[in-house]
Write a structure and sequence with these properties.
- This protein has a domain at 32-102: Serine Threonine Protein Phosphatase 5, Tetratricopeptide repeat, CATH 1.25.40.
- The longest helix is centred in the first third of the chain and has 19 residues, at 32-50.
- The two termini are 23 Å apart.
- Helix 2 (32-50) packs antiparallel against helix 3 and helix 6 packs antiparallel against helix 7.
- The chain is built from 17 helices and no strands.
- The protein has 293 residues and is mainly α.
- It has helices at residues 24-29, 32-50, 54-67, 72-84, 88-101, 106-119, 122-135, 140-152, 156-169, 174-186, 190-203, 208-220, 224-237, 242-254, 258-271, 274-278, 282-292.
Length: 293
Amino acid sequence: MKTTTIFAIFFLFSSFMYSYSQSETELFQLSDINRKKAEKHFILAEKHVDNKEIKKAVKRYKLAVKYNPVYVEAYYKLGKAYDEQNKPDEAISQYSLAIKYNPKYIKVYDCLTDVYKKLGRLEEMAKHYKLAIVYDTKYTWAYFSLARLYFDINNTPGAIKNLKLAIKYDPQYSDSYNNLGVIYWKQGRLEKAEDQYKLAVKYDPKHVIAYNNLGAVYLREDKLAQAEKQLKLAIKYDPEFYSAYYNLGLVYLKQGKQEQAIAQMKFAISNNPKLSDTSNNHGIAYYQRQWRN
């Protein structure tokens, strides 16, 4: 029977502390009056953002860059404001100006690639992640994101390469191990997938997706007791994670525990109605017939 696996992306951004960057010459050429005006408008813009007054914030950010044309932080924040207003072209324009005046301003790349993702412009996403890596060769999130992009377009070697680089520069980032495990799972390399899922839960003992995926590996290998243990851990840390209930139902089905199998699948379908419509697994039809009668 087929089992459900999930290539899920959960991440934590690291905090990057940057001030706007300008060359000494540019700072010298910028008059003290204009610099102060720019900073004043920037501060007021930030207050508008705090009050969720985005349109007012945009006006202030624009004034900030009017008085200081190389105010990188203002371009960045203006880009975020446009993105929040669902104005992708304007957001891209401002993020690009921020990068123009400070190519090492790493957090801009995250926002810019996110806009390109929404627009489906995958080549631009890849281009800017690679640019970010040029300026920070240990930028784990860029490698991780490139891997996901390559995974989505079926470039498996590219995905594996970048996940391994992500792991190299951040060995404790559990999602990298989980996603590498998913790739090995799809290749039918179950032992390697198992190893990666184990590393994921080692570094994150509450990694629900990895427990579920590890349970799926054991299920495929007919190691039913081990599969049950891992799936119950997934449910323990996320009592509404339907995929784990689904896989646990399959475990019970193989164990001949029909009533328990039905109960698990009923919960899975109740929490994700699309499961019953999109899955080709005949186990679902079996469950549905049983608990509806």
